[in-house]
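Structure ticket #2291
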Amino acid sequence: MARLFSIGVNYYNATSYTCTIQLSGPTSHTITVAPGTTGSFGPITPGQYTVGIYTTGPGTYNYHLDGGGNSPTFINNDNGHGALYSINAQDNLTVGITN
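Resolution: structure written out below.
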């Protein structure tokens, strides 16, 4: 018999600007993360997700997504833009932004 389980999203924002994390998939949710904070959200249903990480702060930012057997890091040089990534989430995800 298959057993249903849930996972969560850990997040951090190590910048001076508000960050937005958007999950689209089996569980869709938008998380607004204040500057310099960490937290978690869940549960979310395991499965295929598109994860967007955005900020409106000026300058260059590093966007990080860890989970689903992947640990991509994106570097952004365009103000007001971010990273968008597709991931098969079967374990907890960690999403973050740093300068």
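Closing remark: The chain has a mean pLDDT of 84.
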